[in-house]
Amino acid sequence: xxxxxxxxxxxxxxxxxxxxxxxxxxxxxxxxxxxxxxxxxxxxxxxxxxxxxxxxxxxxxxxxxxxxxxxxxxxxxxxxxxxxxxxxxxxxxxxxxxxxx
Length: 101
Fold this sequence. Notes:
Blueprint: H1 2-8, E1 16-26, E2 39-48, H2 51-59, E3 64-69, E4 75-84, E5 89-99
Antiparallel strand pairs: 1-2, 2-5, 3-4, 4-5
């Protein structure tokens, strides 16, 4: 989806900002782990944010994170937001998704 978006949309219209795959290493420190050899697992992260949300995030003084969403089946979801005290509202800067393995 990201490559289709990158080909078809202007930079200001893009919503999927980053798709990352990060190597996670388990060194066997967990007391419940039967295997003490190093294993590698991949963490996949998708960051979705409008250009306006990105610009607001750069100016933010306080951030809050919310991980209680279950809107997308098969994904862990989180948001980064800020409370605008003058307007008494919450502004969402970005939504991130981590596929459940």
